Amino acid sequence: MSMESEKPAAASATQLLPRFVRFRDAPFYLGMDRNRFNTEVRPYLTKIPIGRQGLAFDRLELDAWVEEYISRNGRSGRLQGERLWDAESCPVSTGERAFGTSTNRSKGNEFAKALDRLSLQKPNALSQD
C-alpha cells in the first residue's frame, strides 16, 4: 500500500462546513421556508455579496440568530418519564393556612342539594329507561 492511498481516520471523518451559506441554502440550513426566512431572519443578518449577483450569509451569524431565537421562544424539555401529574405536591395549594377572601360562592350543603334536585327530576322523554 502506498502512503497516498491511505487517509488518516480523523481526516476522513471530519467534514468542513463552509463559513458562507448561500442565500438559496440559508432557509434550508435553518429548517424553514424562504418566505419565513426573508421576513423573520434576513433583516437581522449581514448580507455578503459573492460575485456580481451572488448573496451569502455568515454561518456563525445564522447560528447566533438561532441561539437568540431559542432563548426567546424555546421551551425547556422535561426529564424522560416525568409527568406533570406525578408531582408529589400541588403547586397551587401549599397546605398552609392563609388569610384571604374565598372565591367559592356556594355555602353549606348547596352542592348536595343540587344533586338531590337532579335525581328527583323526571327522566328525559328521549331516554331509554
Describe the structure.
By secondary structure, the protein is α+β, with helices and mostly antiparallel strands. The chain has a domain of 58 residues. The protein contains five helices and three strands, in the order H-E-H-H-E-E-H-H. It is elongated.
Using the CA coordinates, give the radius of gyration.
32 Å
Structural class call reads: alpha+beta
What's the overall average pLDDT, rounded?
A: 77
Strand order of the largest sheet: 1-3-2
Helix content: 25-40%
Q: Give the end-to-end Cα distance, rounded to a whole number of Å.
A: 91 Å
Q: List the uncertain runs.
A: none
Q: Tally the helices.
A: 5
Shape: elongated
Largest sheet: 3 strands, antiparallel
**Count of individual beta strands:** 3
How are the secondary structure elements laid out?
Blueprint lengths: L8 H5 L6 E3 L3 H5 L3 H8 L6 E3 L3 E5 H15 L36 H11 L9
Antiparallel strand pairs: 1-3, 2-3
Annotation keywords:
129 residues, alpha+beta, three-stranded antiparallel beta sheet, 3 strands
Brief sketch in words of this structure:
With 129 residues, this protein is an alpha+beta fold. The protein contains five helices and three strands. Strands 1-3-2 form a three-stranded antiparallel sheet.
